[in-house]
Amino acid sequence: MEEVQIRFKNGDPDAVRTIYRQYSGAVTTIARSIVDDPELANEIVQQTFLKAWRAASSFDSSRELTPWLYSIARRTAIDAARKEQRPTQGGHEPETDVAIETISFERTWEIFEIRSSIDALPDGEREVIKASHLLGLSHPEIAERLGIPVGTVKSRSARAHKRLASALGHLTQSANHSDDENV
Amino acid sequence: MTVSNKSDDERNGAEADSTDALRSLLSDPTLWAETDPALEDSIVELIASESALSSTAGDPAVANVTPISEARGTAKRPRLVAPSFLAGIAAAVLVLAGFAIATRFTSRSDGIELVLSGTDLAPEATANALIDEGPFGVEITLDVNGLPPAPEGHYYQAWVRKNPEVGISIGTFHMNGGDGDIVLWAGVSTDDYPLVTVTIQEEGAGEVSSGIVVLKGQIGGN
A161 and B178 in contact by Cβ < 8 A? Predict the structure, then answer.
């Protein structure tokens, strides 16, 4: 990965695509968690990767890329949200104080991690997880939708959940502890 | 036997809790937002274009030039750039390189940059300050990171100072929206007021600095 980061810094198109494909989903998720407009979210994604490339020379490639890229994405999204809400012409109320209410740093990081883990799943497993959790389909319904046997759906689902539980265990444990504190 | 069954029950319960928590995390529709398929090629070509400009121009000013859409003051909502327009954008950037546009902002003169460091009260906080002197005053943009929202009943205030005793306020802010840029204004020259500080102030306590400094920096001193 360090080699890819060095090539990314040099503008190597293949490295840019590699980094983009690994993180575009998570960056999109951050953008959509802060702005509602899909078009603005796409622009945020574009600006995030451009800014990351421009700042790559100052990035220590021995460090983790994920938190660094996450912080660029979040700031870019917040900046875009502020610019969209800032009055640009007359006719607005005097002394309007435009407050941008964004979700917390911790919550957006959590979202970034989850989406990154989902994108890291093999395609077949990710399809099953998406159909199960986003669409709320049962295993037989997923099997019919994807054109695969129910047994395959079950095994892919089990593997995917195991991978996600391993990658996101710290988040599920935090959720459980929060519930305990509220009892 | 009883102990082992109890352990199995506890493990099954923990797994069930974990599965339920995971299910809760994965059900958020935002997590599944799709990216525009056209973005990948657009980004690759934009980067290739800027990279080519940086390497062929051979001028550090060109390498640091920011495209027009990023310049503060003329900021328009950036649009997705179709590859067919890239040649025109590249030419425009090359022409503007000779005017030394400061990174991220339009400037009426070359901007001064300095870094503010967090004090013991805010050790994680940093701020990059860009100081532009213009016809209306001195615009000071703080790119603040790691400074938490001001506690209830308090706010942050920025100052430019001749020395620790003599200073002028350049604005107040709260950081409730998280890290980002804060634009402040000074009616005095930073040549005479080279210290830049941020204090935390209590509402209703008056205009005088509390002396509780959270960020500080000095032009020419970093």
Answer: no
| Residue B163 pLDDT level (bands cut at 50, 70, 90) | confident
Q: Nearest CA to A110 among B91, B13, B102, B28?
A: B28
Q: Which of A42, A101, A130 sits opposite B80 (nearest CB)?
A: A42
CA distance B140 to B169: 12
Please, are residues B195 and B161 in contact by the beta-carbon 8 Å criterion?
A: yes
Say yes or no for a CB contact (<8 Å) between B179 and A78: yes
Query: Which of A8-22, A51-65, A78-92, A138-152 has the least mean pLDDT?
Result: A78-92
Which of B22, B30, B180 faces A75 most closely, judged by CB atoms? B180
Supply the pTM of this predicted model: 0.55
Residues 87 through 126 of chain A touching chain B, CB cutoff 8 Å: 99-102, 104-105, 110-111, 114-115, 118
Q: Looking only at Cα atoms, what is the longest distance across chain A?
A: 64
Q: The tokens of A179 are what?
A: 């519930």
> Closest chain B residue to A172 measured between Cα atoms?
B21
Strand ranges, E, within A9-161? none
ipTM above 0.85 for this complex? no
The answer, yes or no, to whether residue A40 has pLDDT greater than 90, is: yes
The predicted-structure confidence for B82-139, as pLDDT tens digits, reads as follows: 444 444 444 444 444 433 333 333 334 457 788 898 888 888 888 988 888 888 889 8
Q: Which of A39-53, B82-96, B104-118, B191-205 has the lowest mean pLDDT?
A: B82-96
